[in-house]
Amino acid sequence: MNFLLYDLEATCWRGAPPNNVQEVIEIGAIKLNRFGEELGSFNQFVKPQINRQLSAFCTELTGIEQDQVERADNFPKVIQKFLDWAEIYEEEYLLVAWGKEDRILLRNDSILHDIDHEWLDPYLNLKRAYKQLKRLNKPIGLQKALTREGFEFEGQPHRAIDDAINTVKIFRHYLDEWAF
Hints:
Layout: E1 2-10, E2 24-32, E3 38-47, H1 56-62, H2 66-70, E4 73-74, H3 75-86, E5 93-97, H4 101-112, E6 123-125, H5 126-133, H6 142-148, H7 160-173
Parallel strand pairs: 1-5, 3-4, 5-6
Antiparallel strand pairs: 1-2, 2-3
C-alpha cells in the first residue's frame, strides 16, 4: 500500500468567494510506501476557470502569484497528472490530508469539471485521527501538532508541497498507530 499525503491551496478571499466557488490552484503531495519511505513528490499549480484572478488576500496568504497560475494547466490536466503519478490504478493507496477541507475541494473541482471522484474514497483525515490518537478535546492545526511532537515547520505555510512535507512528519511518527 502507498500513502499519498497531500495538501491543496485554493482561490481565497476575505469573506465569501465570488460565485460561491473555490478552486484548487496548487496540489502538493508526497508518496510513501507502507514502511514510510518516500517514493516521490508531486507539486503543480492549477489554472482556475471560474474566478481566474487571484485576490490580493490569496497571493498574500499563499505567496502564489497570478502569472504562476496563468501558466499552469487546468484542473482536468493537472489531476490526471496527479493520478498518473500516484499510480492509483496500479497500486493500493490511501489518501492522507490534514483535515477534510482538501478532500472536499478535490471533490468539488472534480464535479465542476465532470471528472469521476470515486478515487477520493480511500481517505484518512489525519487531523481527526491525531485528535483521537492523542485523546485531545478538539482537533488542532498542523503547526500546533508539529510543535507538540517536537518538530519544526519547514518551508512556507499555505504552500501545498510544504504543508504536505510537514504532514509527513506527523504521519511517519505514528505510522503503526493510525487506524485505517
